[in-house]
Amino acid sequence: LLEVSGAVRRYRIRGQREQLRAVDGIDLTIPKGRTVAIVGESGSGKSTAARLALRLERADAGTIRYRGTDLAGLRGKDLLAYRRAIQPVFQNPYASLDPRYTIAQVISEPLRVHGVGDATTRRKSVETLLDRVALPAAYADRRPHELSGGQRQRVAIARALALDPELVVMDEAVSALDVLVQDQILDLMVSLQRDQGLSYLFISHDLAVVQLVAHHVYVMRAGKIVESGDPATVFHSPQDPYTQQLVAAVPRPRQQAS
Ligand code: ADP
Ligand code: MG
Question: Which residues are near ligand 1 (CB < 6 Å)?
Fold first, then answer.
């Protein structure tokens, strides 16, 4: 579905001659219907990679192809179509949901922006979408501050699903949630994938979470991919010293003191 090849993204930093290579030549493939993860510590370039995939920013070098088409050349109608096919879910569900909007308005906004349906059909879509993320229909008329963190993230997912995307980019989308709620959202992701063949780019600093959902994981450090493979292998026998550090940092169940 998505093929990233040699992608580079540099930023000019004030007062510095050298540009920062936030993403420094990464290769990455997202097959249809799969979950591909990028894991790495803060500042390793994960969100920059996400913005390149979402075409919120352009790569300075390398190519990103979606179904074989280079994103760099997309404009007009084709760019609009791409913005429907790939949808983001970000970390902080409160900051990303307008507090003045009702949940119905939040979820239907992408439909309005893309001119899909009329007020009546959009309201119907909101109900279907709420159901899909296991929230009661009555939540349509509530506002974000009336919901828990997990519920808000379900709303963010419902909104991302409104335009029936093929790929959802989740950038630290469960990182702010406590472990039980994280599990519920991850279950939801898996069931949506099973039912609708969704693909995910799942970004997290937390290797333990990644292992639960990803079919393939890329480990990023300082803009580069230092290791990749199936998550169980990367998790249980990391080859790169940096990945070994990440694994060692994952909290493990401790023995009960007697
Ligand atoms: P991560 O998501 O893994 O924490 P980011 O992609 O956000 O990493 O950042 C990678 C590096 O690029 C960091 O050093 C960050 O400070 C820098 N960076 C990110 N966005 C910008 C920007 N718009 N301008 C300048 N530097 C940036
Ligand atoms: Mg980030």
Answer: 11, 20, 22, 40, 42-48
